[in-house]
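Hey,
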Amino acid sequence: MNPYLMVSEDGRELRWTEQCQNLPDNPERFDEYPCVLGNRLPAGRRHGCYWEVEVGNKTSWELGVARDSVCRKGQLSLSPGAGFWVLSLWDGKLTALTDPETPLDTEVPTRVGIYVDYEEEKVSFYNAVDGSDIYTFKEKIDRNVQPFFSPGNNDKDPLCITQPSGA
C-alpha cells in the first residue's frame, strides 16, 4: 500500500490522505502510485469471484485486478502486458487501460461490479446499480490475481469495497 493511503480497520474503505505515513519500504509496497492490492482471490473456486466498489461521485479512481507479481516501484504501466486489468476514471472520462487505452462511451457508474471469471480467464466490469456491462478484458488472466484499488489523489471521499464472493 502506498504511504498516502489509509485503509479502515475493517478493510472496506480506502482513501487518499495528505499526510504521508511512516511505513517501511518493502517490495510489496507501491511507492509512487496511490494504489493497493487487496487479498489474493480464492483461486480454488470453480467459477470465479465477484465484488463491488462504491465509487460514489469521486472524480478519479482505478479499479481492477493485478497479478500478485506486478512491479510496485517507480512509474507503473497499468496495462494487461504489465499484469494489470484496470478500469479508470480520470477527468470525467471512463477508460479501460488496455494498450492502447480504450475510451468508454458509457455513463460513469456510482458502484462498480468486478467479476473474475476463472473458466473463461477474463475480468469483466459492470454498473452494479443497473447491471449493465461496462467492459470485459479479452486478454487471458490467470488465477494468481489480487483486487487492485486506487482512490485517486484529488478528493478525500473513500472507495467502499465489498468482500469478494464466489460465483
